[in-house]
């Protein structure tokens, strides 16, 4: 049985994420969630893959599954509270959402996330997850599930500041590492991976319909 988010650990995580967001706009930490949960998530994702329940990722919510193999080649599966393992991860992210709203008044309204599998050779070209003022994606999260990732395995996430061509941070997709960043501030890319690469990408959103705009369905 997986336990629900531990209140103390959660409060510490919320403090650390809030501080990092204020100071540098992004947060990256190892062993962010319990190791048993990380292992269960990897298991869950690999099981889904065996059941052929992963789909090629599309680009943009609007252009419904407009596939573009030149831009990204991962396969995804959206998380749901119907599955107990996925529900536990979502409970952590919900606690983080509440914690950040309390600390930073961010008005985060909901969270959507998907498992991602990058098979050898897969990548995701440089992109922004949100455009200023045009998206309700405010914060991006990436949680990595891969044990013992080596430099030769490739598949690093490179994080850039707006106009920069050299990366601000180079992040290996090591199990237990949690990355959170402001979605409209940091272009990023996933370098081609040499090994199966497993992760959960997610987005905390504000409710645009509160600003007099119609919130598009996800
Ligand atoms: O897996 C990663 O490191 C980042 C994935 C990503 O950028 C995305 O799904 O938008
Ligand atoms: Fe992204």
Structure description:
The chain is of the alpha+beta class. The chain has a single domain, classed as q2cbj1_9rhob like domain (Jelly Rolls), CATH 2.60.120.620. It is 25% helix and 25% strand. The protein has three helices and eleven strands. The strands form two sheets. The chain has a seven-stranded antiparallel β-sheet with strand order 1-9-6-11-4-3-2, covered by helices on one side. Strands 5-10-7-8 form a four-stranded antiparallel β-sheet, with no helix packed on it. The chain is globular, with a radius of gyration of 16 Å. The model has no long low-confidence stretch (mean pLDDT 91). It binds 2-oxoglutaric acid and fe (ii) ion. The site of 2-oxoglutaric acid (AKG) has 9 residues, from strand 10 and strand 11. The site of 2-oxoglutaric acid has 9 residues, from strand 10 and strand 11.
List strands and helices in order, with pairings:
Elements: H1 7-24, E1 26-29, H2 35-50, E2 55-56, E3 75-78, H3 84-104, E4 110-118, E5 124-127, E6 137-144, E7 157-159, E8 169-171, E9 178-182, E10 188-190, E11 197-205
Antiparallel strand pairs: 1-9, 2-3, 3-4, 4-11, 5-10, 6-9, 6-11, 7-8, 7-10
Helix pairs in contact: 1-3, 2-3
Fe (ii) ion is lined by residues 127, 129, 188.
């Amino acid at each position: 049985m997986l336990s629900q988010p531990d209140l103390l650990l959660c409060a510490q995580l919320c403090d650390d994420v809030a501080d990092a967001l204020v100071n540098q706009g992004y947060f990256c930490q190892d062993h962010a969630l319990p190791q048993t949960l990380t292992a269960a998530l990897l298991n869950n994702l690999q099981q889904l893959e065996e059941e052929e329940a992963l789909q090629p990722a599309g680009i943009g919510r609007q252009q419904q599954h407009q596939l573009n193999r030149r831009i990204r080649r991962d396969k995804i599966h959206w998380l749901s509270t119907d599955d107990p393992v996925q529900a536990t991860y979502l409970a952590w992210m919900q606690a983080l959402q509440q914690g950040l709203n309390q600390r930073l008044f961010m008005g985060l309204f909901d969270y959507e996330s998907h498992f991602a599998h990058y098979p050898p050779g897969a990548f995701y070209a440089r992109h922004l997850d949100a455009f200023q003022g045009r998206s309700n994606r405010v914060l991006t999260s990436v949680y990595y599930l891969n044990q013992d990732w080596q430099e030769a395995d490739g598949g690093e996430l490179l994080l850039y500041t707006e106009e920069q061509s050299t990366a601000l941070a180079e992040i290996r997709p090591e199990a237990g590492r949690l990355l959170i960043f402001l979605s409209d501030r940091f272009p990023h890319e996933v370098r081609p991976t040499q090994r199966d690469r497993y992760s959960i990408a997610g987005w905390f959103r504000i409710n645009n319909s509160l600003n007099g705009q119609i919130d598009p369905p996800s």
